[in-house]
Amino acid sequence: MEFVIGVLALLFVLFVTFGVIAAVRTARAVQRGVERTGTQVRRTVEETTLKARTAQPGTVGELARQRLELRSSIDGTRRALETEVARDPSLQEALGLLNRLHDHARQLDGEMRLLMDGEPDKARTAARMPEVRERVERIKESADSLRFAAQDRASRHGAEGLGALREQIEIESGALRHWHGEQPDTDREIGQAAQPEHGELRGEAPPGIEKGRPQSAS
Length: 218
Description:
By secondary structure, the protein is mainly α. It contains six helices and no strands.
């Protein structure tokens, strides 16, 4: 009896432990989902605000445009690489480089946000604009270079694959047409068997038999 009670207690402890682990994992997954959704919502709101502020004159409008262009370049390159990396694993290295470039882009985006909203000295903001423009342009050029290279690589692989497929199709088509213009051996044999002998066609008797006389038995 004590053994049965011990087994039941052990099973109860195991069930409780597994239940706690499952609950913790579920809570963490829900938390990650909420955080991801919250991040997406905040970014959508921020980009909508930036688009509205691009119409403002002066450095504020220019900074808003620079931030949007920077984000668009990084996001477009990431989509292109992540789409192709499943078919071309060699793009993993390019994706790693993009992640490092994205770190620089986030840092620059934060600096531009501070210049837009937290810097009261307009003269200082205007003085920093040439440096900001140059850094934005350099990051955009690097991101665009990765994206264009990935697109060219995918296009070349597609063209090479299509060329190889066309060659195989031409070879197979030629093999399928090999019979054209040739009579199979079986048909030729049947035709020769059905054709009468040259002498029979003229009505001549076979050798040893005179025409009109039966051959006498010797």
